[in-house]
Amino acid sequence: MSSILGLYSAAFARRPMATQSATSAVIFGAGDVIAQQLVDRRGLRNHDVTCLFGPVLTKWHQFINRRHFDSPFRAVVYKVCLSLIPLIRCAHSIQASAVITVPMFFGSMSILEGRPDEAIPRIKNSYVPTLTRGWCLFIPAQIVNFAFVPVSMRILFFSTVALCWNTYLSFFNAEQRRLQEQSENLP
Predict the structure, then answer these.
(1) Each residue of 125-184: pLDDT tens digit?
(2) Comparing C-alpha atoms, which of 185, 84, 78 is closest to residue 138?
(3) Helices H, strands E: what count in the chain?
(4) Residue 24 and residue 140: Cα distance in Å, rounded?
(5) Helix, strand or coil for residue 105?
(6) Which of 26, 74, 113, 121 could bridge 69 with an S-S bond, Cβ 3.0-4.6 Å?
(7) Do 67 and 60 meet the contact criterion of CB atoms below 8 Å apart?
(8) Res 77 pLDDT > 80
(9) What is the predicted pLDDT for the residue at 88?
């Protein structure tokens, strides 16, 4: 494992933007496969490719990492707060931007699934638990990221945490869809 991380670090040293963008693309691509093939069982013919935002995420983390503070503790606090500013996401939610993107996620998923009438009930049922769980995951993860993870590994770490979150969102969305269908079939 250390040799893989060594190769990653060497690639990061040579080409940070390309390395981090490729990292995001691979991990978020894996998230798409998990969501669409394992959770929704859509089949390869019905697989949709969502947008990849590796360069945006990379630039945002570069911006955050260039900020300097008086103490290491202050640096972690401020960098975590900066990371909570809304980021561009493609049908995924994260930290503070989750206030907006959680309803967007569940609403857009309802529409994309051809069930626009389910959007509002799904948002109402999912909003608070999803928002709370997202903060419980991402705030501690970003504290670990900025306090302990080397700069060269931050996108890798963050993307891996986001993969777990997006997989959870897919399962939660599928469960909400199933509960909605059950309530419609009641006499």
Answers:
(1) 888 888 888 888 888 998 998 899 998 888 889 888 888 888 888 787 777 777 777 777
(2) 84
(3) 7, 0
(4) 20
(5) helix
(6) 74
(7) no
(8) yes
(9) 35
Could you give the percent of the chain with pLDDT greater than 70? 78
Tokens at residue 149, please?
Answer: 């993870």
Q: Are 127 and 172 in contact (CB under 8 A)?
A: no
Query: What's the CA gap between 108 and 129, in Å, rounded?
Result: 18
Mean pLDDT, to the nearest integer, of 120-126?
83
How far is C-alpha 126 from the geometric centre of its chain's CA atoms? 17
Q: Are 23 and 54 in contact (CB under 8 A)?
A: yes
Dist. CA 39–CA 35, nearest whole Å: 5
The pair phi, psi for residue 112, each rounded to 5°, is -65, -30
**Is residue 167 exposed (0-12), middle (13-18) or buried (19+ Cβ within 10 Å)?**
middle
- Residue 19 one-letter amino acid: T
